[in-house]
Write a structure and sequence with these properties.
Helix 3 packs parallel to helix 4. It is built from ten helices and twelve strands. With about 290 residues, it is an alpha/beta fold. The protein binds NADP nicotinamide-adenine-dinucleotide phosphate (NAP). The site of NADP nicotinamide-adenine-dinucleotide phosphate (NAP) has 29 residues, from helix 1 and strand 4.
């Protein structure tokens, strides 16, 4: 099987490529190979590759910047994915497309995990652009997979953002600076190694459609930071704050916990808890090759 992976150098892409190699020949692709901002170039590039499977880890991921630079967010996440999905359908490739918990958030009273049947209701331009990602991936490449995940951290760090939340927490704490972290956004930070494993399992099972792929349990970002420091033996000056105090340009969901019951039904079990995943990450980062 020929497997094309766009965004192969991103944090999820780097964890996925070696695992996908168990299924076939992996062709890692970067923006230089296929630029999702250039729809005219997508179909010819996909036609030249003729993959059996196309895994798209590339996205416009700058949640705050998208509030002003929304045209680029929509160019990449809406139109780029639309053209990619059509190109995959034309060559008979199965598309695996990633999305986000930020397609939710409009319901301020939500307190139970979202299922795949809940209608998206995003509250940011990034979330809206990824809602369109999902619509086009599912309608134009209907035999593919759309995988919603959340708060990714992996040893390779986010290509676009440089690093990840865990590394930011450890770096700032190491500098002896105080940390103020939001305690009114509840979700499930997820380890890219676990998301990558589950993605491969879903492909192996022949699954199609929309799935939530996150670690188990949930926490606020403040609780996640506290757990990072507890497990690292650090005692920084950590203060919970509200989203209003943090005052980021983009609104985030107060609650965007995703149910993984559907995933567990197909691959046999849910992913391990976010606490166990974090523990594994903290070990892996120590052994990361330079
Ligand atoms: N990070 C999170 O917390 C999070 C949470 C939920 C869902 N997700 C979703 O999970 C997926 C993977 O995220 P990630 O954290 O692994 O992302 P990442 O590390 O930031 O990597 C994103 C990749 O997208 C590529 N890219 C950006 N614009 C492109 C374009 N116009 N054409 C082609 N490639 C382009 C980047 O390449 P360059 O480096 O060349 O720009 C980079 O390799 C995305 O769909 C994202 O929306 C992420």
């Amino acid at each position: 099987m020929k497997i094309a992976v766009l965004g192969a150098a991103g944090q999820l892409g780097r964890d996925l490529c070696p695992r996908l190699a168990a299924l076939g020949d992996v062709i890692p692709l970067s923006r230089a190979d296929i630029d999702l901002e250039r729809p005219d170039a997508i179909a010819p590039a996909v036609a030249a590759l003729r993959p059996d499977l196309f895994v798209n880890c590339a996205a416009y991921n700058f949640v705050d910047k998208a509030e002003t630079d929304w045209s680029t967010a929509f160019k990449v996440n809406e139109f780029g994915v639309q053209f990619l999905a059509i190109a995959c359908r034309e060559v008979g490739a199965k598309l695996v497309q990633f999305s986000t918990d930020y397609v939710f958030g409009a319901d301020p009273n939500r307190a139970t995990p979202y299922s795949e049947d809940d209608p998206p209701a995003p509250i940011s331009y990034y979330g809206k652009s990824k809602d369109w990602t999902e619509r086009f991936a599912s309608t134009q490449a209907p035999n593919g997979l759309v995988l919603r995940t959340c708060g990714l951290y992996g040893v390779w760090g986010s290509g676009g953002k440089g690093g990840n939340f865990v590394e930011t927490m450890l770096r700032v704490a190491g500098q002896g600076k105080p940390l103020r972290v939001v305690s009114d956004q509840r979700c499930t930070p997820s380890y890219t190694a676990d998301v990558a494993e589950a993605t491969v399992r879903l492909i192996q099972c022949g699954a199609t459609g929309l799935f939530h792929v996150v670690n188990s349990g949930d926490c606020t970002w403040y609780e996640f930071a506290a757990e990072i420091f507890r497990r690292s033996g650090l005692k920084p000056d950590l203060t919970p704050i509200t989203s209003a105090e943090y005052n980021a340009p983009a609104r985030r969901p107060a609650y965007s916990v995703l149910s993984t019951a559907k995933l567990a039904g197909v691959i046999g079990s849910p992913l391990r808890s976010w606490q166990d995943a974090l523990a594994a990450y903290l070990v892996e980062r120590q052994n990361k090759p330079a």
